[in-house]
Amino acid sequence: MYSQTKIAIPIFQKKYEDVIEVANDCIDKGADILEFRIDALKNPNIDEIKKTIKEINFPMIATNRINTEGGSFKGSEEERVNILFECCDLVDYVDIELQSNDEYINKIHDSGVKTIVSYHDFEKTPDLNEILYIVEKEHELGDIAKVAFMPQNLEDTLTILAVLSHCKDTIAISMGDLGSYTRVMASKFDSPITFASGTDVTAPGQIDIETMKALLNMDLNIMDE
Question: DSSP letters along 135-169, please?
Answer without folding.
Answer: HHHHHHHSSEEEEEE--SSHHHHHHHHHHHHH-SS
